[in-house]
Amino acid sequence: MSDSLYEILIVDDTPANLDLLRNILKEQGYKVRAAAGGHRALESARLSQPDLVLLDILMPEMDGYETCRAFKADPRLHGIPIIFISALDDALDKVKAFDCGALDYIPKPFQDEEVIARVQNQLRVRELQQDLLIKNQNLAKALAQVQSMNEQKDIFLGVVSHDLRNPLAGIALMAELLVEELDEDHHQNDVRRILEASRTMAELLTRFLDINRIES
């Protein structure tokens, strides 16, 4: 997927930070949107889902942690990867960020190359996840089709079994009666062959159905 097809939402209450990150990402060919706070970020994402969110922590009214939790609580936004970018560099702050559902953390001040690398990494992971999801959906559809075909085959075999068993049983019964009534001549031998053939066909049918059950 081309970088130009990815859209990134930057959330920061400092205009200078928004401009800096916007310029870095646009130079890489990304589409960029900006939101000055958590509420606006959620409104923007619900209108049109971004592929990734860069999120500051220290913001008035709704900080980055609250914003991240709101994203993860919304089924429509839950899968969007979030990277925190913050001046808070304490280990507990990072742990809290990951507990909220963030996938990465970039401390300020940051290097352009680090931002680009981490963004590319998360977008690549997201692309692979979506590809896997599509493949799993296709596999589920194929499995459903196979199961449906197998059910139809079982119904067909059941009908065939019923339609063949009854005539074969009738043929065998009539052949047995004829054998008892006919004298020892070539006609009796012919009837015996009919009887043996009908029994053989019935046995083959039984074996065929047994093999089908085993394969199922």
Could you describe the 3D structure shown?
It is a single chain. This protein is an alpha/beta fold. Helices cover 66% and strands 11% of the residues. It contains six helices and five strands, in the order E-H-E-H-E-H-E-H-E-H-H. The chain has a five-stranded parallel β-sheet, sandwiched between helices. Helix 1 links the parallel strand 1 and strand 2. The longest helix is centred in the last third of the chain and has 70 residues. The mean pLDDT is 85.
CA-based shape: rod-shaped
Given the structure, what is the number of helices?
A: 6
Low-confidence stretches: none
Number of strands: 5
Mean pLDDT: 85
Distance between the termini: 41 Å
**What Rg is obtained from the alpha carbons, in whole angstroms?**
36 Å
Please write the string of helix (H) and strand (E) elements.
EHEHEHEHEHH
> Given the helix and strand composition, which structural class is it?
alpha/beta
Helix content: 55-70%
Order the strands across the largest sheet as they lie in space.
2-1-3-4-5
Sheet with the most strands? Answer: 5 strands, parallel
> Which strand-content bin applies to the residues?
5-15%
Summary tags:
66% helix; rod-shaped; 216 residues; alpha/beta; single chain; five-stranded parallel sheet
Write the layout of secondary structure elements.
Elements: E1 7-11, H1 15-27, E2 31-35, H2 38-47, E3 52-55, H3 64-73, E4 82-86, H4 91-100, E5 104-107, H5 112-181, H6 186-215
